[in-house]
Write a structure and sequence with these properties.
With 460 residues, the chain is mostly helical. It has 22 helices and two strands.
């Protein structure tokens, strides 16, 4: 293994910038690998061999390494920057034909993780966050009009049926988390719906509607993967969703997906790319043609990205604008079904996270209480549990342990039957926050810690 004696100076320089030890970096790489279903056995000796002897990381380990370093530095670290070879094949290429990309998505999503790594598709790609230019959007809309029609006739009834299925799957995701039924969504999208997309449409509106609804299903399968911690899979589904929305010439649908990409990037610590995506989601027709409710959703994610990059005043302005947009939504508005979940409770939840990130803990706590108070917990169970998790975290940061434990106990109650990486993270955060208190025999602390451990064991 140590026969290559040429040190990787480029990698050494980037690691030095992070201030991480080899042990800490190895653990960070393992965490990224775990997101991809890969049990990578890296340790400090592995990192030493990469740096001191120039040993090349095997399989997808190089991508995991670049991602771990990127998260630490808060900027994109390419493989080339750390002395590794960039891959020549990327399924996130925006030039790939939409229906071909959809077919590839179905094939890759159903193969095992070893095969995905062999295909080079098992890592989250920072390069994939760069959206194509305006000419691409124009070409995609024109391409949708010119597609060669197949023999099967697709009419309004077919479109209504697909829309009904999208509503059904969305409701399941909100109640039970992304760990339930995602493969069913993928199979329906890449099977039956894909067949419709290749058919002959009865009119222009049916064609646009079918491509838009397919985009919504691709977005939903991506969101479910994101919610379950499968970040590379989520990114690929989001990319296909954007392509489908572009062929439908549906700017608000595209914005909805780009907003999700920004949300994911922000959660992964890629704050600058997240802000670029969030800003793109509110550009031009993506915002002006959206319903008031969807504008509020786009705006609050933009506010969160601004907060994450330290732009406090701009974040507060964006929050006020999102509040105004949601206030303008009225019962009976002509709005897409995909925004059914975004109500006062959701706005308050996202507002709280933005306020937390700019250091306003009392304001964040107030908004989280508002979110808990106004949410229909039985319908939006997963987010209710996560909101309570955040609320307990803010309470414990203000040294109110008993109150935090009571909040976390309610959060764990809500997690029953939910399979989501975000609820698992909430449980992990509980245990981490309570770790210094475990030896004090405080009953509320012991109860929450024991329940959180049991939830993690049952859902891992």
């Amino acid at each position: 293994m140590t026969s290559e004696r040429t040190p990787n100076e480029a990698l050494a320089q980037v690691i030095a910038l992070t201030g991480m030890t080899n042990h800490a970096l190895a653990q960070a790489v393992q965490r990224v690998a775990a997101e991809n279903g890969d049990e990578l056995q890296t340790n400090k000796s592995t990192v030493t061999h990469w740096v001191r002897y120039g040993v090349k990381p095997s399989g997808s380990a190089g991508r995991y390494l670049a991602e771990a370093l990127s998260r630490r530095l808060g900027r994109t670290v390419t493989l080339g920057e750390i002395g590794l070879i960039e891959p020549t094949h990327d399924l996130l290429d925006w030039r790939t034909d939409t229906l071909s990309a959809l077919a590839d998505l179905g094939r890759i999503d159903t193969v095992d993780m070893d095969r995905r790594r062999a295909l080079g598709t098992a890592a989250y790609s920072l390069a994939g966050l760069a959206l194509p230019g305006s000419s691409w959007w124009d070409r995609m809309a024109e391409q949708g009009e010119r597609r060669r029609a197949g023999r099967a006739v697709v009419g309004r009834g077919d479109l209504d049926a697909v829309r009904d299925m999208a509503v059904l799957f969305s409701g399941m995701d909100q109640r039970h988390g992304g760990g339930h039924a995602r493969t069913t969504v993928v199979q329906y999208l890449t099977g039956e719906v894909s067949g419709y997309l290749s058919g002959t449409f009865t009119d222009h509106q049916v064609r646009r509607g079918m491509f838009s609804t397919a985009a919504e299903l691709a977005y939903l399968s991506g969101w479910m993967a994101f919610d379950n911690g499968e970040h590379p899979t989520a990114q690929k589904h989001f990319t296909v969703a954007v392509k489908l929305a572009a062929e439908a010439d549906d700017a608000p649908m595209a914005a909805h997906v780009i907003r999700a990409m920004a949300h994911q990037a922000n959660d992964l610590g890629h704050h600058r790319p997240a802000l670029d995506l969030a800003a793109a989601s509110i550009e031009g027709k993506r915002y002006t043609e959206a319903s008031p409710r969807e504008r509020a959703l786009l705006g609050v994610v933009h506010a969160r990205a601004l907060a994450s990059t330290g732009r406090k005043k701009a974040a507060l302005r964006a929050l006020l604008r999102a509040e105004d947009d949601l206030a303008a939504a009225r019962p009976g508005d002509d709005e897409p079904g995909r925004v059914f979940f975004f109500q006062e409770a959701s706005l308050a939840h996202e507002t709280a996270l933005a306020l937390r990130d700019i250091g306003d803990l009392p304001g964040a706590e107030q908004q989280l209480h508002r979110s808990v108070r106004t949410r229909k917990a039985a319908k939006f169970t997963r987010t209710h549990a996560v909101t309570l998790g955040y609320l307990g975290g803010i309470q414990v940061r203000q040294h109110r342990i008993d109150e935090a434990c009571a909040t976390w106990s309610a959060s764990l109650d809500a997690m029953n039957g939910v399979r989501s990486a975000r609820t698992r993270k909430a449980a992990t955060d509980m245990r981490a926050a309570l770790s210094p208190l475990r030896q004090r025999a405080i009953r509320s602390v012991t109860d929450v810690d024991t329940r959180a451990a049991a939830y993690l064991a049952a859902t891992s």
